[in-house]
Design brief:
mainly alpha
Length: about 300
């Protein structure tokens, strides 16, 4: 892995982060005045002017923009308008819950999706293959909020087996993780199946079979490593989407994570909190993409050869 390749990826990541933060900053301030949302309707204009000055909203947009980036470089992400607490601390207090929910859902998706995709590819055009493809369509089509509400109706209200909200015990994690992981498992199964079918049809796989290599050896040493790149792509993207994808699920199950905090902050127009959360989402997306690019070069020699050929 060359220094030039890593440098270009890091510079591109920094540029992407700057664009994302700038876009969020400008859009949030063009959508309305937070003072109108947070202050009571019967408040006087002098009080509104006082809070706008206190929050720095009375200054021109470009001045606010410059001051915001100055504060960022000093590690200051702003103060929550509603809670009067540091926005970064508020987000970090909720982050472990979101990472727990997102990590569990991704683990569930990988454990379920990859084996289903492999077996479906090996049993192509069989009833099992059609079942896996049906599951994939179901996962793509089923909205998170509908599946979550359906699970609450069945397992909480009727069967009374699982709690419908909160995060106190492991039982509270089951339904949110299943809701969040179902769509991801469907995507993983579909991508794994497509990648495995492509690899299984390669000449070297037929050569290995003609030489008498056991099916398990052909699968683990030849098929899976060559099918790993597209699988890593979808997994890397989902790792970057952990926080953003939990917003609806956390709201349905009252899970006290970053996604639910984002919903409340947007409703309250709590700019500092919204900006901090969206910046964290952008950072995770950019980091995941950089890691996926690096893993491409590690897992697939063709990527390294092509990169060196393009540099000549």
């Amino acid at each position: 892995m060359s220094i030039g390749f890593l440098s270009s990826k890091l510079l591109r990541a920094l540029f992407t982060m700057w664009l994302a933060v700038s876009f969020v900053f400008i859009i949030l301030r063009l959508t309305g005045d937070p003072a109108d949302m947070l202050l009571p309707d019967d408040v006087t204009q002098s009080t509104i002017d006082y809070y706008r000055e206190l929050w720095g909203l009375d200054q021109p947009l470009w001045v606010q923009y410059v001051n915001y980036f100055k504060a960022l470089f000093q590690g200051d992400f702003g103060i929550s308008f509603r809670n009067r607490q540091d926005a970064f601390d508020l987000v970090m207090d909720r982050a472990p819950k979101t990472l727990l929910l997102g990590g569990t859902s991704i683990l569930f998706a990988l454990v379920m999706g990859i084996p289903l995709g492999i077996v479906a590819a090996m049993k192509r055009d069989t009833p099992f293959d059609r079942f896996v493809m049906g599951f994939a369509v179901f996962g793509f089509s089923m909205p998170n909020f509908f599946l979550g509400i359906l699970l609450i109706l069945v397992f909480s209200l009727h069967l009374r087996l699982l709690p419908s909200s909160g995060s106190d015990t492991w039982a509270h994690l089951i339904m949110p993780a299943f809701t969040l992981g179902t769509a991801f498992a469907a995507q993983v199964a579909r991508f794994t199946r497509s990648a495995m079918i492509d690899v299984l049809n390669k000449p070297y796989m037929r050569t290995a079979a003609s030489k008498g290599a056991p099916a398990s050896r052909r699968l683990t040493l030849h098929a899976l490593p060559n099918a790993a790149v597209p699988i890593i792509t979808i997994v890397g993207l989902k790792l970057g989407e952990v926080i953003g994808s939990t917003v609806i699920t956390e709201t349905v199950f009252a899970w006290p994570g970053v996604g639910r905090l984002l919903t409340v902050a947007v409703a309250d127009r709590d700019l500092a909190v919204v900006q901090c959360i969206l910046m964290l989402i952008a950072l995770m997306m950019v980091t995941a993409n950089v890691l996926v690019d690096i893993l491409y070069g590690v897992l697939d020699p063709r990527v390294r050869v092509g990169r060196r050929a393009g540099m000549r």
